[in-house]
Every structure is written in C-alpha cells, then in structure tokens.
Amino acid sequence: MGKAENTPEVIDILAVDDEQVNLLLLTGLLRREGVNVVTARSGYEALKLTEKHDFALILLDVMMPGLDGFTTAERFRADERTCHIPIIFITAISKEQRHIFKGYEAGAVDYLIKPFEHEILKNKVQVFVDMYRQRLAVQRAGEVLAKTVTELRASSRALSDSRARYQSLFTSMFNGFALLSHDQGRAVDLAQARIVEINPAMEQMLARPREALMDHLLGEILPNLEGYLRDFAAEVARSGKSGLIESYLGDIKRWLRIQAYVPGAGLLALVAEDITARRKAEETIQERTFQDPLTGLANRALFMDRLDQSMERSRRRLNYLYAVLFLDLDNFKPINSSLGHAAGDKVLRAVAEKIKNVARGLDTVARCGADEFALILEELKNPGEALRVARRICKELAQPMDVDGHSLHFSASVGVVLGPADYAQPEELLQDAGIAMEQARALGGGKVKVFKWAMRTRAQYALNVNQSMHHALERQQFRLHYQPIFNLADNTLAGFEALIRWQVEDRLVPPDDFIPYAEQTGLIVPIGQWALAESCEKTAAWAERFRLPRNFTMAVNLSAKQFAQPDLVRQLTRALEENHLDPQHLKLEITETMVMQNPENVVHKLRGLREMGVKVSIDDFGTGYSSLSYLRRFPISTLKVDRSFVSDLDAFENLIIVRTIVSLAHNLGFDVVAEGIETERQRDFLADLKCEYGQGYLFSRPLTEEKTLELLSVCCPKTPAGS
Q1: 222: phi > 0 → left, psi -120 to 50 → alpha, else beta; which?
Q2: Secondary structure of residue 294 in the 3-state scheme
Q3: How far is CA 161 from the centre of its chain?
C-alpha cells in the first residue's frame, strides 16, 4: 500500500507523426516512470485523442498528409479544451526563420529540428511534465481551498481541520501563493492590496521573510508594479473571473506566470509560477534567430524590424530624423580566395567592430549579407550628422588591418537614405540605400552617395533594359549594320566595320542606350558571340557573291568581357570553319584601355589569334595610356585613330597627336584607320600623312544589310565567267 502511495501519477503526453518508426523512437526515448506516450498517426487522430485524454504536452510533426502540423496546432489553440497544452514541433522541413516563425505563430512553445539530441528532448519533456504536475497541484490546491472555505462555514471543527490542511499545502507548494485583501468600496488597486497570507514559495520569490511581508501593502514590497499588471488584477476583481498573465517584475528581476482569482468578498488570490528560466531560454532562441552568428551584430530580420519601428516613429513625430546606411566592402572576395575563409571571417569581425565603434549607442548595426552591413541612425539632429557618420566609417575602414600577418587595406562604398521619407515598406528603403551604394561604387569605391529618386529611375531602367535584352536575344532582334572603310589613296572599298543595332519593331534602339548595360550585366558576351558568328557568315557569303579586294576585312568589336572568355579562340575557329571563311578577312578590334589592364595576358592571347591568321586592331588609340614597350610587343596589324582627334584637326594639339600616331604606327609596321572623317579637308590631311584607311559620314553612315549589298554590287561586281 505504501509503495502505491509513493508511485508518481502517470502523466500522458501525445506524440503525433505519420511515420510509425518515429513514434516508436519517441516512445522508446520517453518510456519512464510516470510518463505515458500516447501516439497518433495523423492530425485528425490527434484531435480525437484529446477528447479522451488530458495531455501534459504534445510532440507534433509538421509534414503530415491531410492535416499538417501547423494546421493541427492552430486547431488545438482554437479549442478551449486544448488551448493550454504546450506544443513542441519536431520536424526536418527547414531551419529557415519563416518556418520557425510560422511554428510560433501556430502556437508552438518550442521547435526541434531533426535530427535532435535525445537528451535535449528528454529534458524538455521533463520540464513540461513537471509543470503539468505543478498545475495539477495548483488546481487541486484551489479545489481543496474551496472545499475548506465551505467546511469553515459549516463548523469550527471543520475550520480547524481545513486550516491544518491548508497550511500543509501552503508549505509544500512549488508555486508561490499570496492572499490579498482590498477595500470593497472602490476599484481594486493592486499596489494598495494588503498581504493577509503567503506561502514559503512566494517568500522565496519575493526574497523576504514572512514577517516582512504579512500585513504589508503589495506596493511597499514591489514599488514598481507595472500598470498593465494593476489593470489585470482590477479586471479579475471586478468580473470575478479568474485570469492568467505573464509579467516581468523588475523589483525582483523575475518573470512570473500569475493566475489570479477571487476566493471571497474583498479577497484576491495570486498563484505565481517562476518562469524566468523558460523566458531566458526563449530569449536565447530569439537571440540566435535575430543575431548574425559570425559578428554578433543584428541580422537582416532584426534590422528590418527595427527599421519598420523607425519608420513608424517618423510617422508619429514630425521632428523625428533618421537615416539608413548601406555599405559593402570593395574587393573583399579576393581575401577568401587568396587567404582562405577563416581569414575572411576575421576581416568581417574586425569590420563589424570598427563600425560599432563609430556608431552611437542608440543606433542599430547589422550584417545583411556576405560583406554587406547596414545601420539605422536614429534621433539625428540634422541630415549632415548621417553623412559625418558615413565618412567616419569609410575613414576607419581605410586604415590598414592586420590579419594573420598580412597588412590588408580596404575601402567601403556607402549608400545613404535620409528619413523621414515616403516609404510603405522597410524593404523599399533598404533597396534604395543599396542603389545609392552601387552609385558610390561606380565612382571608384570608398565613396559615400546619398540616394536621390532619379537613381531608382535609372536602376529600374537598367533592369528593364536587361530583361528586354534577354528577350531580344531569344527573339533575334539584334541586327548588324555595316560602316564602309575606304582606302584613302584611291577611295576604293577596303572593308566594313560591323556595328550592333537593336531592332524593336520599326525602331532602332541607339547603341548608347543598351551597350553600357550589356557590358555591366555580362550580356555583351552572348551578344558579341552572335555578332562574331553573323559577321563571319555574311563575309563568307559576300566573298562568294562579289569580287572582294584582296585585303578586304570585316572589323568586329570585342568587349573586355568577351576578350576575357577562355574559349575565345575556339569560338573563332568554329565560326571561321563553319563558314569556310579565310581568317585574313576578319579583323578584331579591341580598345587601348582593355589591352593595358593585363598586358602580359593580352600578348599571349593576341599571339594565338595571329597564329590563326586573324588580324587585330587597337581601337580608339590615343585615348588610353599605352606603354610603347608593350605596344611594340603586341602582335597587331592596325592602329585606329579615335574620332575625337579627327573631328577637330583645327586644334593644333589634335593635329600633332594624329601625325604622331600615324608615324608611330608606320615605324612599328602597322597600318592606320582613321574614324569619324566628315569633311574632305580631314580626308586630304590624313591622305597626305599616308594614313591608309578611313571611315566616317563623309563616305557613308552605317548601312543595313540591304544597302550594304547595293554598295558591294557597285564597288565589287563579280566578273562574269568567260568575259
């Protein structure tokens, strides 16, 4: 008999999972004295089981056929019989915050990701089982107290007996209990309620002995009682209905779960459960959810929440000024590739520390991407204060940084959005800060740029052009126009330059409106590959149809990205072989700036092109910074004089430059093409300098394929056989 009395009461918990093996695993793990695992294979079965059982805890899988875990949890919460049961999600679907948030919104108290540590699950289950036992004890204590009050009214003997039982229960309760008296003639003020009974557990919570608590006003013990807690107590006393609330009491530095009820007229009973440990665990989970693990800064989710709060404050307060800074480290990626990711992580932590040291105490600093950081500057005195902070950050980051024995130098591009501004969502504001940052980076890095609405228009235009160019490639909307190149000695046709045009219905998009964006996005590579193949095909077809001059060439421009392609030579070989085109008829034009970015690599690639028989021309010569020593080593055939020098030969310095370029080219064994010739005077001057070739509006504008064929039929007619 004694053994039965000491046996702990069996507590039911519910495990829900559509996989039988998972249920067997949970049952095996949690089989212990005092815990009975009831299992369900679906959400519907689980809902039916709650009609027969009072569960201490529900372990709920998320991904189940029919009724999934989130929906099942919502139904538990919507039912008065089951809304109090704690739910722990056990799932393997995702660690992403949106899934975790969805679980908490559905009513979960915790979230375990498969595979999980068995001891962690056992400990969590034990906590909720103990809490359930405590709730049962409180409930039964309430029932005993109610019965005791009845007995007290029945007889003095019953009063004496119940008093003894009541006192015994008081001393053994895990939860704190306090009985308060208040003036029935007015609304209850919790601070003015007097303590008439208290148990040892409540003494421990309040950190005071019984004699220091009895017959004292609660406001004397807890002078900083929160207003919402007072309102809660007043409502319970007024309505006579019990209530439950969780509150942090700053005076004792504890989180309490307080149940209040009215045991009699002029009385208010409080049962308090210390949930400080649980709340700290929840705060730890929240910290991990909203904190960047590498730098300790706020992560993007927390940053967006804080930004939303700042925007709301700006709507309520006319004089509230704030700003958002978005910064990205310039040239950070080579650190990971050259020194390793561990060194890169050290750099990011050091950068985060420097930014925090510049930021003020009330500002929010966050890491929003790999090497992207953002700040919210609040309570600004004026907009200039935000710019000063941004410039200080740039200055701090420009200081040398020692990482693993390497002295590293960095710069950061910073975009600034000044608030208040007319934004509906914080994402839009951060997007505009990013646009301003890209504008700062375009200036060379290490710069600060304030967002202006025109920047978004340009960014949107760039996006539209980018998308339209993708469609243009698919719909074959690109065309080649051909500008003739003439021999200046005898005005005979020497070749063409192939120029890319974009045909949209009956309109041609100007090259300046799409070529720069194609360069930025990398679309210039597939567009350039198409232009190269098309030029080879047309030149081969013309060679069959017309009597082209022996030195006839088709000049095709190569962008820097296209020239850098590792399979450029293979692309050229395929285009020439497929069209049976003599490589001598193809001339590739690359800019002077391009060749000087990596001259050693360029020399190697140009030699490969020369071995194929393809000619190479340096375009826009004179506008860059060529080294004569490298120019002598480049295996090229032509220098092309930029139109800016040709168009203004009346300027003495331009005349000298053109004469020098022609003389230099001839001394190195190159021929010369002058572009932008518009007057006979320009042509005659260049011819006198022995400049071999020229192109420009004096001769012809770029021609469509149809007009090009007409020109070829006049300049290069094929002699009929036998004539």
Answers
A1: beta
A2: coil
A3: 68
Q: What is the CATH number of the domain that holds 628?
A: 3.20.20.450
SS3 labels along 220-234: HHCCCCCHHHHHHHH
Are both 547 and 681 inside the same structural domain? yes
pLDDT digits (tens, 9 = 90+) for 233-278: 899 988 889 999 888 888 888 889 999 999 888 899 999 999 888 8
Phi, then psi, of 177 in degrees rounded to 5: -135, 135
- 358 belongs to a structural domain: yes
Q: Please check whether residue 471 lies inside any domain of the structure.
A: no
Do residues 472 and 478 lie in contact, with contact meaning Cβ atoms separated by under 8 Å? Answer: yes
How far apart CA 601 and CA 613 sit, in angstroms, is: 19
State how far Cα 553 lies from the chain centre: 49
**Number of domains, the chain:** 4
Same-domain check for residues 428 and 508: no
Task: Say if pTM beats, i.e. exceeds, 0.90.
Answer: no
**3 state DSSP class of 190:** helix
Q: Does residue 538 come out as left (phi exceeding 0), alpha (psi in the -120 to 50 range) or beta?
A: alpha
Residue 108: Cβ-neighbour burial (10 angstroms; 0-12, 13-18, 19+)? buried
Domain span at 55: 2-133
152 part of a folded domain: no
Backbone dihedral angles phi then psi of residue 54, each to the nearest 5 degrees: -110, 100
Q: Which tokens is 240 given?
A: 């006579």
Nearest one of 208, 204, 364 to 272, comparing CA atoms = 204
Could you report the per-residue pLDDT of 607-666, keeping only the tens digit for each?
888 888 999 998 877 665 555 666 777 888 999 998 888 988 878 888 898 999 899 899
- What span, in angstroms and rounded, lies between the C-alpha atoms of 104 and 604? 61
Say if CB 499 and CB 717 are below 8 A apart. no
For residue 447, give Cα distances in angstroms to 254, 380, 440. 49, 21, 5
